[in-house]
Amino acid sequence: KQEVTQIPAALSVPEGENLVLNCSFTDSAIYNLQWFRQDPGKGLTSLLLIQSSQREQTSGRLNASLDKSSGRSTLYIAASQPGDSATYLCAASRGGNKLVFGAGTILRVKS
Amino acid sequence: GAGVSQSPRYKVAKRGQDVALRCDPISGHVSLFWYQQALGQGPEFLTYFQNEAQLDKSGLPSDRFFAERPEGSVSTLKIQRTQQEDSAVYLCAGQVGTGGVGELFFGEGSRLTVL
């Protein structure tokens, strides 16, 4: 059974810092891995999707990497801003139609 | 519509009541998913539709939970005889493709509180 773990559970950083969020998964036979952002009381917004054949994806100040062999993905946020404050969730898909989510990292960027 | 619409956004039910939660996905989204998100946790898969066919309901926690998508667009998640442990946010998501390929578009969720 796939299990997804995110570390740290919460993170508070000053504005402008670069930061890394970690995601690990137990079953390396994944189809893809996705990173989502969730604002309080809102649904999830897809940030980046990495197919199993890819090593990384970039969108603006965000970069996500995937290492299937070690069961890890990282989300790198450059030059963090207060508007980046949210919960960040990673989710692994083994094909089929289920995503298995981690519990998330709550990020606070202080101005 | 422009996005995935869920209603009601908030629902308070007395234990034992039946509730129905509606999801109106983006037009053309073949795949539709329901997830349950408990406080402080990530979403957990409940069920999956491809058009009107419910292809996977392995995540439904009990036979009190029932979902349908009769015309392949709007979907309803019904919970019978609600219990306190059913309190959670219920998220609906749509996807253009099938087979877990591509981006998921989530609604804002329906927050259910069972007293």
Word description of this protein:
The complex is a heterodimer of chains A (111) and B (115). Chain A has 111 residues and is an all-beta fold. Chain A is built from no helices and eleven strands. Chain A has strands spanning 4-7, 10-14, 19-25, 32-38, 44-51, 56-59, 62-67, 72-77, 86-93, 99-101, 105-110. In chain A, strands 2, 4, 5, 9, 10 and 11 form a six-stranded mixed beta sheet that branches. In chain A, 38% of the residues are buried. Chain B is mainly beta. Chain B has no helices and eleven strands. Chain B has strands at 5-7, 10-13, 19-24, 31-37, 44-50, 53-56, 65-68, 75-79, 88-95, 105-106, 110-114. The radius of gyration of chain B is 13 Å and the shape is globular.
The arrangement of helices and strands of chain B along the chain is EEEEEEEEEEE
- Shape annotation of chain B: globular
Note poorly predicted spans of chain B.
Answer: none
Continuous helix count of chain B: 0
* Most extensive chain interface and residues per partner: A-B, 26 and 30 residues
The residue fraction in helices of chain A comes out at under 10%
Biggest beta sheet summary of chain B = 7 strands, mixed
Mean pLDDT of chain B: 93
Radius of gyration of CA atoms of chain B, rounded to a whole number: 13 Å
- Termini Cα gap of chain B: 33 Å
How would the blueprint of this fold be written?
The complex is a heterodimer of chains A (111) and B (115).
Chain A: E1 4-7, E2 10-14, E3 19-25, E4 32-38, E5 44-51, E6 56-59, E7 62-67, E8 72-77, E9 86-93, E10 99-101, E11 105-110
Parallel strand pairs in A: 2-11
Antiparallel strand pairs in A: 1-3, 3-8, 4-5, 4-9, 6-7, 7-8, 9-10, 9-11
Chain B: E1 5-7, E2 10-13, E3 19-24, E4 31-37, E5 44-50, E6 53-56, E7 65-68, E8 75-79, E9 88-95, E10 105-106, E11 110-114
